[in-house]
UniProtKB/TrEMBL annotation, chain A:
It is found in: Cell membrane. It is a multi-pass membrane protein. The keyword ATP-binding does not apply. The chain crosses the membrane at residues 15-32, 108-129, 135-152. Keywords: Cell membrane, Cell shape, Membrane, Transmembrane, Transmembrane helix. This is Rod shape-determining protein. It comes from Chitinimonas prasina. Its main location: membrane. Belongs to the MreD family. It comes from the Bacteria.
TrEMBL record, chain B:
PANTHER family: CELL SHAPE-DETERMINING PROTEIN MREC. Residues 281-301 are annotated as: Disordered. It comes from the Bacteria. It comes from Chitinimonas viridis. This is Cell shape-determining protein MreC. The gene is mreC.
Length: 170, 301
């Protein structure tokens, strides 16, 4: 079901902030190395969602500052997440009208390469600054993120839905 | 240029691409600065303080769960350890008890060894196998029998005194009748003045008694009775009993003299079978008499 076919309530800015906080918290949970390999990048997913659906609220600036927070939290080099998130969010922002018309599974197909691009940019940055290759399991998160996209979209859209669609139609 | 002509309503701020350029260059700058000069550590520290609540939020449930898990794990571990320690303690205390028993046994064995030395090394050390099953008799079964050279009538002693007498032989075991067995008699002598008497056993759990002593017999309580050796079975001089009480009742012809055995007759596990054969003169009278009687018998026939 295309997202744009529904009539939605305006989103609250506080809800956007809340989702980012939740995403950051999920990213900060000390999962074991096995689980972490399969987990998607929650912050990137949330960011891409808001860029796609609320481009006037969330943009490249958000991407940059969130990435800064992640860099600091993870103790990575500054700018690792920043470059990746800025690039992908810009890409989504440019096509948000088109993407918003796609059904969710198609959006997921679109998001998957973006997540992969995120990982690749971060990988390039890390390898440029002297880190080793972390193994192919590093990219598994991309797949799980794409699989998670429809669910996440439904979840993040839930507060915006109108309670009684019948009233709208009448 | 276009932005200037746009109405304010459509104004969306700077274009995404320009923002991308700005932020991407900022990211790259930060990256280079961070990697090359490492001067962003204070910034990192400051912001990480701000991130701390989030980190706490992320880790708190997990660490709490871990702590709860730790609590239960340590609870079970403690219980297991406690149980094991108690088992060990039980084991150790049983070992300790066995050690004490062994120590006692050892002292007793040493005492018996010295007793045997006092008897010129003659004697067989023996271990009590069991008390006789008959509750009416005071008998023991010991682990030396005919094959060890035990003979009927040998005296059994412990470090304190006479215990009894070998009364029945089996190849590997022997039955010892204790001096407290009913009807068992030991010829004794009072050490103090040499008065001779006969000590009767009255059955297990009962005291020994000296019978057939006149009321004025010179026996007092705490007199020590030793074997007199008159019968030829008991070698002389072995302590047998100590007089406990002397009742001189004018109504009866004899004094009632209660004694308690000198030996711990029902306590020890190791006893000494004395091997002191005393050559008794043969009984020539009967042997001489029998042929004579037979001859006398034949004469009328």
């Amino acid at each position: 079901m295309p997202v744009s076919s529904q009539l939605l309530k305006p989103v609250k800015r506080s809800f956007i902030v809340f989702t980012f906080i939740v995403a950051l918290t999920l990213a900060l949970i000390p999962w074991g190395p096995m689980v972490r390999a399969f987990l998607p990048d929650f912050v990137a997913l949330t960011l891409l969602y808001w860029c796609m659906n609320q481009p006037r609220h969330v943009g490249v600036g958000w991407a940059f500052w969130l990435a800064m927070l992640l860099d600091i939290a993870d103790g990575n080099v500054f700018g690792q997440h920043g470059l990746a998130y800025c690039a992908t969010s810009w890409f989504v922002l440019g096509r948000h009208r088109q993407l918003g018309m796609f059904p969710l599974w198609q959006q997921a197909l679109y998001v998957a390469p973006l997540l992969l691009a995120n990982q690749l940019i971060m990988l390039l940055v890390r390898m440029a600054t002297g880190s080793g290759f972390p193994g192919w399991s590093y990219f598994v998160g991309t797949l799980s993120g794409a699989l998670l996209w429809p669910l996440l979209s439904q979840l993040l859209q839930a507060p915006q839905r109108v309670d009684k669609p019948a009233e709208i139609q009448s | 240029m276009q932005a200037t002509t746009q109405p304010v309503f459509f104004k969306q701020g700077p274009k995404p691409f320009s923002l991308l350029l700005i932020y991407a260059s900022l990211s790259l700058t930060l990256l280079v600065v961070d990697v090359r000069w490492q001067i962003l550590q204070p910034v990192r520290e400051t912001v990480s303080v701000a991130l701390y609540p989030l980190q706490w939020l992320a880790t708190a449930p997990i660490s709490a769960a871990q702590q709860v898990g730790d609590y239960f794990v340590s609870q079970t571990a403690l219980q297991r350890e406690n149980r094991k320690l108690q088992d060990d303690k039980l084991l150790a205390s049983s070992e300790l008890m066995r050690l004490q028993a062994l120590r006692q046994e050892n002292t007793q064995l040493r005492a018996l060894l010295s007793t045997r030395a006092a008897h010129q090394g003659k004697g067989t050390l023996t271990e009590v196998l069991y008390n006789d099953r008959d509750p009416f008799t005071a008998k023991l079964v010991v682990d030396r029998g005919e094959s060890s050279g035990v003979r009927l009538g040998q005296v059994v002693i412990d470090p304190q005194g006479v215990v009894g007498q070998v009364t029945r032989l089996q190849p590997l075991t022997a039955e010892v009748t204790l001096i407290s067995n009913k009807g068992h008699t030991v010829p004794v002598q009072v050490v103090r003045n040499g008065v001779r008497a006969v000590l009767y056993g009255l059955g297990p759990e009962n005291p020994l008694e000296v019978h057939w002593m006149p009321l004025n017999a010179d026996i007092r309580s705490d007199d020590v009775l030793v074997t007199s050796g008159i019968d030829g079975t008991y070698p002389p001089g072995l302590p047998v009993a100590r007089v406990k009480r002397v009742d001189r009742n004018a109504g009866s012809a004899f004094a009632r003299i209660s004694c308690e055995p000198a030996a711990d007759i029902d306590k020890h596990r190791f006893l000494l079978i004395l091997d002191e054969r005393r050559d008794q003169p043969a009984r020539p009278v009967e042997q001489a008499a029998k042929p004579a009687r037979r001859g006398a018998h034949k004469e009328p026939a």
